[in-house]
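Posting for a labmate who doesn't have an account.
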Amino acid sequence: MVVGKRILATGAAAAGLALALPALPAAAAPAASGHVLVEVIDIDETTTQEDFCGITGLTVQVHDVFHGRESYTFRGADSIPYFTGTFHGVSTFTEPDGTTVTIKANTVTKDQRIVENPDGTWTITSQSAGGFLVIGPNGTLRDPGMIRFQVVIDPNGTPQDPDDDVFLEDLGPVTDSTGLNETGPTFCSDFLLLTGRA
């Protein structure tokens, strides 16, 4: 489902999270442009990851708590669905000795532009704004601000039904993140820094 991919393309992707989001119910195609609420998502799960961030033998427990509210606004004569989502998440990475690194993210993501490509796929430009913190034993890294990014999806022949969209490609950022940018290029670089390994 493309919505999960859009979430991962925002702050969650920067953190390296793998959120297993449920599929959304099919949105009924509206007769005219309008607003349709799709779903509220709540996740509270714990997993383990071995050889975390490339450190041989390091197994961490990952506790993800995530709340999201997603909707579509159907725009234009063709009622093309534009995505809007608000997301609040906390992920805690705990080492066997009790050392923890925590990610806190609060974002609003909105589709800004949808372009139909010659092959029938869509290039979607989205904007995500909010706050992102990575907290560990050696301090806090902050990344508030806004970023624009693009993804390519296949609407699968049913443009008004986002449930069956197929995610094809993450084209990455269109603009750099605005505001204070203390986080590194990957979550692992932040993890190593905050745990004194870098």
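Reply:
Got it, the structure tokens are right above this. Strands lie at 34-49, 60-75, 80-94, 100-116, 122-136, 139-142, 145-154, 166-175.
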